[in-house]
């Protein structure tokens, strides 16, 4: 679960999907999937 939080935190800080994927050691498609779920949920990262 901490990897997903890390990805969302980097995204809300303005990082690009490519740099998030490199930093989190995951694929860009996985990052896109996590971010799409985050946006659809309506939650905020606070």
Automatic annotation (TrEMBL):
Q: Specify the domain of life of the species encoding this protein.
A: Bacteria
The record ties this protein, via SUPFAM superfamilies, to:
Homeodomain-like
Tell me which InterPro entries the record gives: Homeodomain-like_sf, Resolvase_HTH_dom
Question: Which Gene3D superfamilies does this chain map to?
Answer: Homeodomain-like
Q: Which residues form the Resolvase HTH domain?
A: 3-36
Q: Which residues form the signal peptide?
A: none
Q: Identify this protein by name.
A: Helix-turn-helix domain-containing protein
Organism whose genome encodes this protein: Mucilaginibacter antarcticus
